[in-house]
Amino acid sequence: MTSYVHGYSEREQERLHDQAGTLNELLHHDTRYPAGAQVLEAGCGVGAQTVLLAANSPEAQFTCLDISETSLIQARALAASRGLTNVRFLCGDLYSLPFVENNPQEWAGFDHVFLCFVLEHVAQPEMLLASLSGVLKDGGTLTAIEGDHGSCFFHPETRAARAAWQCLIDAQAGLGGDSLVGRRLFPLLDGSGLAAVQVTRRDVYCDASRPQWMDGFVKKTIIPMVEGVKQTALAQGMIDESTWAQGIRDLHLTGTAPGGTFCYTFFKGVGTKQGCT
To answer: How far is residue 73 from each of residues 17, 86, 228, 231, 275, measured CA to CA in Å?
Structure first.
């Protein structure tokens, strides 16, 4: 993994939960796992997606892995507060999966693998997908969800707002990640050896007629995400402080100005592991 571009502040934790709740139906309405299925959630973080997945598939069993023990403490607490008994949390590296190394003779594999907003943070997504595909049973599926910051369009648009948004893209690239990875989801999954790969678009559109989306997505998810790279952007000379401040003010106008709109696209891909013939 690269360093997490958004950081681990309390505000970022809050943002992740706001994001998950707002996008739940859009991203997860067609993710359901059958009774008894063993599911690996790779890169579960603070459990924002975990609790939604586990609640949607109460008879499946989820193993949720993340490299940050601090995040896992929060994830365990969240799952416990929701009364979820079908999840377990492990600390480990996605490139060196702990259950494979510890029990190579007993390892049977997962029925399904799920990862959401993970590939954008890694320098070698092809290697990560190969690692995760390796723990799938034959016939098992891998589901990946990613955004694409290049798909962002908004009104009113100003030069300062665009400059602030570009800082988010550049900061992540500077850490070895790729915030434009959504557009590459099909070739990444297809190139990892998975079969029957299908990718669908999940479009977000916000305007004054959809106040819940303006609040949950623009105000509580998108703008805080941009604000989170402020120190990096200023320290690396990506933008000057006055332009940054104006850009953030202008981004807020998309949610408060008459006629303000905001558009963004997510991509959801699913592929199946085929056995050797």
So the answer is: 15, 17, 22, 27, 37
**pLDDT, tens digit, 9 for 90 and up, residues 202-240:** 999 999 999 999 999 999 999 999 999 999 999 999 999
- DSSP H or E segment with residue 41: strand 38-42
Surface-to-core class of residue 159, CB atoms within 10 Å of its CB (0-12 exposed, 13-18 middle, 19+ buried): exposed
Beta bridge mates, 275: none
Nearest partner of 193 among 255, 138, 118, 259, judged by Cα: 138
Sheet strands (E) in 117-256: 136-147, 153-155, 195-206
* Residue 66 zone, left/alpha/beta (φ > 0; ψ -120 to 50; rest): beta
The sign of the CA dihedral 39, 42, 73, 179 is negative
Q: Closest Cα partner for 208 from 253, 256, 154?
A: 256
| Domains, in order of start, for the chain | 10-272 (3.40.50.150)
CB contact at 8 A, 262 and 217: yes
Confirm if 10 and 32 have CB atoms less than 8 A apart. Answer: no
Mean pLDDT value of segment 72-89: 96
CA distance 151 to 157: 14
Q: What is the mean pLDDT of the segment spanning 8-35?
A: 81
